[in-house]
Amino acid sequence: MPSVSDIYYFSHQEEKNIRPPVILIHGAGGNHLSWPPQIRRLPGKSIHALDLPGHGKSTGMGRHSIAEYAEDLAAFMKALKMRNAVLVGISMGSGIALALALKYPDKVSGLVLLGAGPKLRVASKILESLGNPNLFESAVNLINENCFSAKTSQRLKDLSKRTMLEMRPPVLLGDFIACDQFDVSGRLQEIKIPTLVVCGAEDKMTPLKYSESLRDAIAGSQLEVLKDAGHMLMVEQPQAMADILVKFINTLPPRARRRTRLRSAR
After folding, report:
1. From CA 133, how far away is CA 52, in angstroms rounded?
2. pLDDT confidence bin for 160, thresholds 50/70/90
3. What is the pLDDT of residue 264?
4. How far apart are CA 55 and CA 217, in angstroms?
5. How wide is the angle at C-alpha 191 spanned by C-alphas 185 and 195, nearest 5°?
6. At residue 108, what are phi and psi to the nearest 5 degrees?
């Protein structure tokens, strides 16, 4: 897989795709593999699933603010000469998508916000534990147990836990600090971009009321609620989430074709 601007990414390209490209933005402590194959390889769509700086196989340092990650994403798009894209973000990734849409609305042709909210507050107990080497693993356990619905298999929970434990503790702490400081609740009315909000019915990290607040504040936005899913809904219900994404993306206007200049023969 290629890398640009210190960001490592998975790319799935469809030559005949007429819709804007899609960028998948993982959450705190995640990487591009947070998105199951059904979503990384959406039929008929061009997909870019990235590892944010300091995550997965990307170089660089993790950030301590959503705004910094949004600038990283803008640099990523510029490096790929991507004029605009559909941004699909989970949790912290949804905050990054919102931040980019507010600062660079012309770069965003659609927003899909999973496990999202206008604020992403983090319990002080989690922040304190992540910053303590002796309590780091117990903090990861607490986070992980609250990310899934009751019907999620233990295998999926164990895989998620292992991924977080492989993170450098300062990077994971930085992600949760960034989430805790995030607040765009007073600016949502500025967003005029087609927006889909998706929430797991059993989400304990960002309960349904936060998704409802996004739907109510962003004009024209839609809300989908997935049964038997928690915060990591795309992992728990990958095919259902893939179907929802395809349906939404297909409602967006086709991307503009580049005009070729005809040179007169001399």
Report:
1. 23
2. very high
3. 34
4. 32
5. 100
6. -120, 120
Tokens describing residue 118:
């206008």
Task: Give residue 5's pLDDT band: very low, low, confident or very high (50, 70, 90).
Answer: confident
Closest Cα to residue 80, out of 42, 23, 33?
23
pTM over 0.85? The answer is: yes
d(CA 49, CA 72): 14
Q: Give the model's pLDDT for residue 256.
A: 64
| 166-to-9, 25, 158, 160 alpha-carbon distances in Å | 19, 19, 12, 10
The pair of structure tokens assigned to 233 is: 């809904």
Name the one residue in this structure whose structure tokens are 């905050």: 95
- Domains located in the chain, CATH noted: 3-249 (3.40.50.1820)
DSSP structure string for 77-133? HHHTT---EEEEEETHHHHHHHHHHHH-GGGEEEEEEES--SB----HHHHHHHT-T
